[in-house]
Design a protein that fits this description.
Elements (H helix, E strand, L loop, with lengths): L2 H19 L3 H19 L13 H4 L6 H8 L8 H5 L2 H19 L14 H9 L4 H22 L10 E6 L5 H14 L8 E5 L11 H11 L2 E5 L15 H17 L4 E7 L9 H8 L1 H4 L4 E4 L5 H14 L3 E2 L3 H12 L8 H26 L8 H8 E2 L1 H22 L1
Parallel strand pairs: 1-4, 1-5, 2-3, 3-4, 6-7
Helix pairs in contact: 1-6, 7-9, 10-11, 14-15, 14-16, 15-18, 16-18
Length: 422
């Protein structure tokens, strides 16, 4: 099925919904945009719902050729408490039901199956590229994996021998390299390509696998796999006590034993991703490597390891700029010259936090800007005056002074932390 056919299906569904609900095109555009706002936020594991205004249909779906059919398959209308019913009023929900009718008819009639979608053209992959800078090897690896699943799915359409492909992956790398973020987007990519058995996603840390009482942990882990189709486990090694003087507690041992069982049983029908510190880092901090070495039952089921790399100086500057832009801040000209020596030093520090360092620095910069703003307001601004250009400019701009002050505070806090460790 090509893009024109998919667009025509979506347009037909759109027109049918307008006819059935007797709403205007302007209102329909608002409804559809809200539908996809909920759909994409749900697919990305994000509970934030964006309420956007109406838009022209052609512009609205210019880059969403495959979304409609994925939407049709993902909405559980049988569940009265689905995300759409919770976030939509009666008129919006009625439109949604009518909007899905045509797509459901085509699927039930067997007129749509085995849709072939290029991983690089999925909405999830495009959004991943916008959110995560650099990491080109990681992005290529995700597309390669997506292609393998599409390839396998296409073989099934011709009744060719099914080649077992475990959906168990390890996402490893230094801290602050967007491993968990990429995990969520990868899951969304596979959802869009319709290569998963379901769409329910759960994200947990290793410590969250443990229950309050001995004997309940195994059931808690089992329920996690029963109720979800996509399981992302961050820092599973937190279950293991690597202190030679202490043993791993009973709760953790129970969680690990059940986790091995679940991975063994569900490596084909569930998407399971283990994310954590590993890859190209020093042996002492390679916690994922040690975890897998000590848990061969899990390690043997890992189909592919996706490696994340540390960022270089230019990438750190780009990340800082993106974070500032996403927070509606402008940076005073010359900021790169100020921050370049700082990041050149940080990338070689053993405690380098990658993206986390950029985020921490931005927070320190905002603190410096806030202190200056309050002082300016106290001295020069009439608190009863309406919002003005001068005030807005100060709220929008991070100056070189703010950045320099932030660098000093950042380095001071790092020195204090190193002193506590020492």
């Amino acid at each position: 099925m090509n893009e024109i056919e998919i667009e025509n299906i979506e347009r037909r569904a759109y027109e049918n919904a307008i006819f059935a609900t007797d709403c205007s095109y302007e209102t329909a555009d608002k409804y559809v945009e809200k539908i996809y706002s909920i759909y994409f936020s749900q697919n990305q594991g994000n509970s934030m719902i964006e309420h956007k205004t109406g838009a022209d249909f052609d512009a609205l779906f210019k880059n969403k050729k495959h979304s409609y059919l994925s939407l049709v398959k993902s909405v559980d209308m049988g569940n009265p408490l689905n995300m759409y019913s919770i976030n939509m009023d009666a008129g919006e929900y009625k439109f949604l039901k009518e909007y899905l009718v045509y797509g459901r008819y085509l699927i039930e009639a067997g007129k749509i199956k085995n849709m072939l979608i290029n991983p690089e053209k999925t909405d999830a992959y495009k959004r991943l590229c916008n959110v995560i800078l650099g990491q080109e090897d990681m992005k290529k690896a995700l597309c390669r994996l997506g292609a393998v699943f599409q390839y396998s799915k296409r073989r099934e359409a011709y009744n060719l021998m099914k080649v077992p492909m475990h959906k168990v992956f390890a996402f490893v790398g230094p801290p602050g390299t967007a491993k968990t973020t990429a995990s969520v987007y990868f899951a969304s990519m596979l959802k869009e390509m319709q290569v998963l058995n379901g769409t329910t996603m759960a994200y947990v840390t290793g410590s969250q696998l443990k229950a309050k009482y001995v004997g309940q942990t195994a059931e808690k882990v089992h329920e996690l796999f029963v109720k979800n189709d996509i399981i992302i486990i961050d820092e599973a090694y937190s279950l293991v006590n690597y202190n030679d003087s202490d043993k791993t507690d009973n709760f953790s041992q129970e969680a690990l034993a059940q986790l091995c069982t679940e991975v063994e049983e569900h490596s084909d029908d569930k998407l399971i991703i283990f994310a954590g510190y590993g890859g190209d880092i020093d042996e002492k901090n390679n916690k994922m490597k040690r975890f897998f070495n000590e848990n061969p039952g899990i390690a043997s089921r890992i189909t592919f390891t996706v490696n994340f790399s540390s960022y270089n100086t230019n990438e750190m500057l780009d990340i800082f700029e993106l974070l500032a832009k996403n927070s509606d801040f402008g940076l005073e000209e010359g900021w790169r010259d100020v921050l370049r020596p700082f990041f050149e030093k940080r990338v070689n520090n053993p405690n380098f936090g990658n993206g986390r360092d950029a985020r921490r620095l931005l927070e320190q910069t905002m603190c410096a800007a806030a202190v200056d703003f309050i002082q300016w307001a106290d001295e020069d601004m009439d608190i009863f005056s309406p919002v003005g250009t001068a005030e807005k400019e100060r709220l929008l701009t991070l100056s070189l002074k703010h950045i320099k002050d932030a660098v000093k505070e950042f380095e001071k806090s790092e020195s204090a932390a190193e002193g506590r460790v020492g």
